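Give me the fold.
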Amino acid sequence: MFDLDGTLTDPKEGITNSVAHALKHFGIETADHDALCAFIGPPLIYSFNKYYGFDQEQCLEAVEVYREYFSVHGKFENSVYDGIIPMLNILAERGYRLFIATSKPQKFALEIAEHFGFEKYFEAIRGIPMNGENMTKGQVIGAVLREFSLEAKNTLMVGDRSYDVCGAKENGLDCAGVLYGYGSEAELKDAGADYIIKDIHGLTNFFEDR
């Protein structure tokens, strides 16, 4: 089970541009988009509250404005990490059942996977609804497990942030934390990642050795 942003694709440009668009709506100018990378991974409502002190109503409004830009431009201001497609080919050839579990709206996740041509590798791509319901990463993972009758002991979560690790642990899954995304080694270790993997070559080798 794979996270999407920071694990399969590098969404930095699209997400930070979308966040800047939302902040501008509130009169907040952000010249340094690198400072907005903290928004990559966690649910948007959480991040607008944590980093800008928005209340619930403001968070919901910010998410709507964010999506105005993201739905047209931001979702494709993105790129698949080098080595991901060859790795997915290997996993498919070896008979792995592959899933995506993301905190991104499911609609956008599907569009991104289709646009970049890797949806064919995944049995299902699941994310949060577009109706404003605030699902945690653990709830998304749990929903995939139930929908496809997956056994936790036979399922591995792969992600780059603590939210992926914590969501996996909530559901009894082991988690491989990857360092080529947007989480640090300390973040992943502190969250309890079972494996720490430096790069995509190492992730490919990890699966080949299992």
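The two ends are 15 Å apart (CA to CA).
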